[in-house]
Amino acid sequence: xxxxxxxxxxxFHPDPxxxxxxxxxxxxxxxxxxFPGVPLFTSKNLKDWTLIGHxxxxxxxxxxxxxQNSEGIYAPTIRYHDGYFFMVTTxxxxxxxxxxxxxxxxxxxxxxxxxxxxxxxxxxxxxxxxTYFISNGDCKGNSGIYLCEINxxxxxxxxxxTLISTxxxxxxxxxxxxxxINHEFYLMLAEGGTEYGHxxxxxxxxxxxxxFTPCPYNPILTNRNLPNGSDIIACTGHADLIDDIRGNWWMxxxxxxxxxxxxKNVLLHNLGRETYLTPVTxxxxxxMAGNNGVLQMNIPTSLPxxxxxxxxxxxxxxxxxxxxxxxxxxxxxxxxxxxxxxxLNSKDRCLVLKGCDSLCKSCVSPTFLGVxxxxxxxxxxxxISGIPENENSLAGLSVYYTNxxxxxxxxxxxxxxxxxxxxxxIYDLIADTAIIPLPWExxxxxIESDKxxxxxxxxxxxxxxxxxxxxxxxxxxxxxxxxxxxTGTFFGMFAEHMTASFQNFIRQTLNIQAPxxxxx
Length: 520
Hints:
Layout: E1 2-5, E2 17-21, E3 24-28, E4 34-35, E5 37-43, E6 50-56, E7 77-81, E8 84-91, E9 96-102, E10 113-114, E11 120-127, E12 130-139, E13 142-149, E14 162-165, E15 174-181, E16 184-191, E17 199-205, E18 213-214, E19 233-243, E20 249-257, E21 274-283, E22 286-289, E23 298-301, E24 317-320, E25 333-334, E26 342-345, E27 350-354, E28 367-372, E29 378-386, E30 394-402, E31 405-414, E32 417-426, E33 429-437, E34 442-449, E35 453-459, E36 465-472, E37 490-496, E38 499-509
Antiparallel strand pairs: 1-23, 2-3, 3-5, 4-25, 5-6, 7-8, 8-9, 9-10, 11-12, 12-13, 13-14, 15-16, 16-17, 17-18, 19-20, 20-21, 21-22, 24-38, 26-27, 27-38, 28-37, 29-34, 29-38, 30-31, 30-37, 31-32, 32-33, 34-35, 35-36
């Protein structure tokens, strides 16, 4: 028997939604202020997933200019009906709820069809010739889950919005998904908030309009009562149901791995909310997920052996030589990129970045190209060259969470001397914590991580590895930000007020835990 090793999609991939077309599964996750939006994965066995593209790849689909941290694109839902894929989501920074569709999910998706019903976390259900649109929100002072019928291609509401549920007693009932199973309508919600009290609840009815009867053993999934510690999944919730080709049922849900280490139990996470998979059984007409409602890290399963379409997201090495325009699909920008600041020099196999706004500035799109950190124990490295123009110039490698929480490592100018600097920002405190003269035109930069720290190294022309400084992971965690955030850490190349060339970007997962003290 095989094992599901959770998370099935590691790193910042929250709010998963899933659909199946014959024996192929498709899954989308939230993207918030990052561009392109709504990563799209596919799998043939539910546990090995391949990133095949994004649903929102054009500025006209995804206007993010000026959006705050953790605004932009909230929870998406993906569904398939009558030859078309539909993805519905919310741009909380402007426009509200909308639907895009396509017949080729790895290709271009349509322009948004806006839906007048408000709220967030929209979902779709197709039954016969009707399309139901559901979201959570507040209408005429009544907060809860609302339903209407729509035209999925145009977004036109065919009925008025109707309040069908206020949840099962937990705070913040959200993430509604409506299913039609065995001639009954099932309404699944996330409740308790997307923090450490998160849970999944279920109700059912003979009509999509209700009334709904709560499952007698709600919540059907929660890890809220587990003791904190390493190798424990927390914050489980925001789930979606799917059946496989054998008739078995499964659930994808978000969860987090905290930075707890042996003897240190702390409720902090820096990798973001990730995508997990768990089996579902049925009891007295209601589903129960996991092990009596608990999501586990490793689950025995009869799923087929690995049948990935290509390399899966668990591949321990991402390597980009910038030899063609086909960059790795994992590369991401902060908000809508200014594409004139990104130039691929395929002849010299390098990416040229022209710096504009600083990573420290809010609500802008700095020159940044990064990938999600998807393991605690990881290495990111790149070769960089560039001539700083002034003391505001900086280009290099960053560990980025938000504009108020990041560590930046690169080339700058100090007192007229070209230097290598480690800049750290926590809230409004910005400091250069290490500076050395840099006599070489080109330098290799490397960041290593474990659960407690990020460690910053550079290499001399003779390949000597030199430690420059470090910063704690705790300063780049969701729980310590000024305003609640929903994202995770990135390793990214960046440039501020200078032009720099980057070669051989690598993100590699370590097989063993890194040494505690990098200075020795």
